[in-house]
Amino acid sequence: MSKRRAIDSFFKPSVKKAKYELSSQKSQHPTYPFPIPYLPDLIQQSLNTASVVEGTVINDQPDLDLLYFQPFIPKDIHQAVFEFLRQELFYYRVQYTINRGGVETIINTPRYTTVFGVDTTSCFGENGKLLDSETKKPILENRYKCRPRPIPQCLSVLKKITEEKTAETYNFCLVNFYADGNDSISYHSDDERFLGQNPAIASFSLGAKRDFLMKHKPRPPSKDHPAKPEVKPLKFTLGPGEMILMRGRTQSNWLHSVPKRAGGEGGQGRINITFRKALVKGGTENYYQYNVGSGNVFRWNAEEKKMGEWTAKESI
Ligand SMILES: O=C(O)CCC(=O)C(=O)O
Ligand SMILES: [Fe+2]
């Protein structure tokens, strides 16, 4: 460090420099509130080393088939990828209503979410317009109740490497941001019919460590497992850059969750990225309804170190 810089940094409050250098190229689309920069070159180069890591197969429980990468995203770029996605994506805090025993109840999704992609019946043309996958002609305006968004370059890069490593293809990318230990996802399985039978879901963990719990769905007694067909629950403490691929019979037989947790997380939060493949239009509508919704846009505020509501007035 030069003398001048040493003196400056002694007197000035240090402004933490972002861990990545932005590319001038951006992914743009009329459905995006603001353009999303391409993944910085250095991150892209280093991500390619991810293609050499091998996952561990975990299939020692009934109906379980996991492939666990510890980590998938190389250690040297993990923090930069995390900070980039926290800063450069737009997020939502979705509210929806459900009917519980005849009573309309408002549900507040307890985390920030965002989604990109379209099911296999459509694809994005060069100009960003949606085309019918078979005819390659523009789709009818009202084909979807939502406005599908193409996967931006920064997430497409990761999708491609994931496809190579898992021998699967994906057309959807869902992102969850857990701002602190109060944000969570309750027990569920991603076994919707629109994903087809035995779907493969690649799930990345960035930022703070969180517990990922799995439990078998209730099993009716059978010849193989008579009286008490119990399978013990599992706990994975997912660390920075790790990826867990859930495949085979996992979704149809197991539930998973990220419970709330007491205590801080160094204020940085956690990002989860999942890649999946939706086969029909209903999947697209479902994902946009529950991950974008109709509410405000949120963006990370680097000065205040927290999510804030974003309005179109802000510079882009
Ligand atoms: O955050 C995670 O690790 C899990 C997210 C998840 O299960 C989902 O989005 O369906
Ligand atoms: Fe899930």
Describe the structure.
- This is 2OG-Fe(II) oxygenase.
- Substrate binds at residue 191.
- The chain has 316 residues and is of the alpha+beta class.
- It has one domain (25-297): Jelly Rolls (Sandwich).
- Helices cover 19% and strands 29% of the residues.
- It contains six helices and 19 strands.
- The strands form six sheets. A seven-stranded antiparallel β-sheet has the order 3-4-15-12-17-10-7, sandwiched between helices. The chain has a four-stranded antiparallel β-sheet with strand order 11-16-13-14.
- Strand 5 and strand 6 (103-108) form a beta hairpin.
- It starts with a helix and ends in a 6-residue tail after the last strand.
- The relative contact order is 0.21.
- It binds 2-oxoglutaric acid and fe (ii) ion.
List the helices and strands and how they pair.
Elements: H1 3-11, E1 26-27, E2 36-37, H2 41-47, E3 56-58, E4 66-69, H3 75-88, E5 95-100, E6 103-108, E7 112-117, E8 122-124, E9 130-132, H4 153-166, E10 172-178, E11 185-188, E12 201-207, E13 210-216, E14 234-238, E15 243-246, H5 250-253, E16 254-258, E17 270-276, H6 281-291, E18 297-301, E19 306-310
Antiparallel strand pairs: 1-2, 3-4, 4-15, 5-6, 7-10, 8-9, 10-17, 11-16, 12-15, 12-17, 13-14, 13-16, 18-19
Helix pairs in contact: 2-3
2-oxoglutaric acid (AKG) binds next to strand 10, strand 12, strand 16 and strand 17.
